[in-house]
UniProtKB/TrEMBL annotation:
Pfam families: Ub-RnfH. Signal peptide: none annotated. HAMAP family: UPF0125_RnfH (MF_00460). It comes from the Bacteria. Belongs to the UPF0125 (RnfH) family. Gene3D superfamilies: RnfH-like. This is UPF0125 protein ACFQNJ_00030. It comes from Hydrogenophaga bisanensis. InterPro entries: Mopterin_synth/thiamin_S_b, RnfH, RnfH_sf.
């Protein structure tokens, strides 16, 4: 028997985590079925799975202590979100050089 941890975030600031004991040679798909999460969130079947943050397949054999994570797609591209935040904040109030010492040269 191996012990694995399953993690899924169905919505922002909401995390579901469960620890299961599975037989040796169990796969990510078997872990998902054993957890009962398919009944609660049917869309989880189509989401990519990762083991400790590294992309994995549903047929990959699991090892003791693995952490399976199901990843929702991003709603907003992080680059675009950062660009929009910067426009809203203005160039003088954001970034590395926002709080300069009095009399310092620009960019330092």
């Amino acid at each position: 028997m191996i012990r694995v941890c399953l993690v899924y975030s169905p919505a922002a600031r909401q995390v579901e985590e469960v620890t299961l004991e599975l037989p040796d040679g169990a796969t990510a798909q078997m872990a998902l079925q054993a957890s009962g999460w398919l009944d609660r969130w049917p869309e989880i079947h189509d989401l990519p799975v990762s083991v400790w943050g590294r992309k994995a397949s549903a047929t990959q054999a699991l090892r003791e202590g693995d952490r399976l994570e199901w990843c929702r797609p991003l709603r907003v591209d992080p680059k675009i979100a950062r660009r929009e935040r910067f426009v809203g904040q203005g160039a003088r109030t954001a970034g590395l050089f926002s709080r300069r010492r009095p009399g310092a040269k620009p960019g330092y």
